[in-house]
């Protein structure tokens, strides 16, 4: 039996490394992306890398857009413009380029994309604003591709919670934290998405450490509204003309 093919960006350490290993243990042929493999913001490098993957495997069954960075935890007025924009480029241009390049080679009907996003996309906080904005933009890409009858592919937003990684340990907001999301809680959801168990959640956000495969299946069975777990405008009430 031919192994399914998974591409995981940012797979040299942290959550990406754990997900790549979990997929390998589940029988996937995993292509691990890193800055030494292909810088995700470099179009030529991304196209060459994906081209090499397709030349060897013929297709991609699963893309996990995990590569990402965070900017300094300061208010926008104190941010460094170069660092701010570099964060947006890595977290938005990166998954855009990789997704755009992979899409023509994604297995029709069964190929899936998982975007690692964050609950920060849904909060108003004047700190690490490039990261927050970039994750909201990534959520919009997920919905544009994966939601509705005209969807392009099966695409999921996965907020991993707070996994103990080099990045989270460096953040002031997590100083003194004693409770962490288990990496296995993240990989369980990715494996379920890859199997097709959670296809009803295409275009929507799920959160490791809060959601489980069982709870998501139960909720999907009960029915999902058009706006459930999506990023969008909240109307002031039924009389709001923008509602």
Plain-language structure description:
It is a single chain. 39% of the residues lie in helices and 11% in strands. It is of the alpha/beta class and 243 residues long. The protein has a single domain (5-222), classed as NAD(P)-binding Rossmann-like Domain (Rossmann fold, 3-Layer(aba) Sandwich). Strands 2-1-3-4-5-6 form a six-stranded parallel sheet, with helices on both faces. β1, α1 and β2 form a beta-alpha-beta unit. The longest helix is centred in the middle third of the chain and has 22 residues, at 81-102. The radius of gyration is 18 Å and the shape is globular. The N and C termini lie far apart (50 Å). This is 2-deoxy-D-gluconate 3-dehydrogenase. One of its GO terms (molecular function) is oxidoreductase activity, acting on the CH-OH group of donors, NAD or NADP as acceptor. InterPro entries: NAD(P)-bd_dom_sf, SDR_fam.
């Amino acid at each position: 039996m031919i192994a399914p093919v998974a591409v995981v960006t940012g797979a040299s350490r942290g959550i990406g490394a754990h997900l790549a290993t979990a997929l390998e243990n589940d029988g996937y042929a995993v292509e691990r992306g890193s800055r030494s493999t292909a810088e995700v913001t470099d179009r030529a490098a991304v196209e060459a890398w994906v081209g090499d993957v397709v030349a060897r495997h013929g297709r991609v069954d699963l893309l996990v857009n995990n590569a990402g960075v965070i900017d300094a935890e300061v208010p926008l007025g104190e941010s460094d413009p170069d660092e701010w924009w570099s964060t947006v480029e890595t977290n938005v241009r990166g998954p855009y380029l990789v997704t755009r390049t992979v899409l023509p080679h994604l297995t029709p009907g069964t190929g899936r994309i998982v975007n690692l996003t964050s609950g920060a996309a849904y909060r108003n906080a004047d700190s690490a604003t490039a990261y927050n904005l970039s994750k909201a933009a990534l959520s919009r890409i997920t919905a544009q591709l994966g939601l509705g009858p005209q969807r392009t592919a099966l695409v999921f937003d996965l907020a991993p919670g707070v996994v103990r990684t080099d990045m989270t340990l460096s953040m002031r907001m997590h100083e003194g934290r004693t409770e962490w999301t288990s990496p296995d809680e993240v990989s369980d959801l990715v494996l379920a998405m890859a199997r097709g168990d959670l296809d009803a959640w295409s275009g929507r956000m799920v959160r490791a450490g809060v959601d489980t495969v069982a709870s998501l299946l139960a909720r999907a069975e009960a029915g999902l509204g058009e706006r459930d777990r999506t990023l969008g405008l909240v109307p002031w009430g039924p009389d709001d003309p923008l509602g």
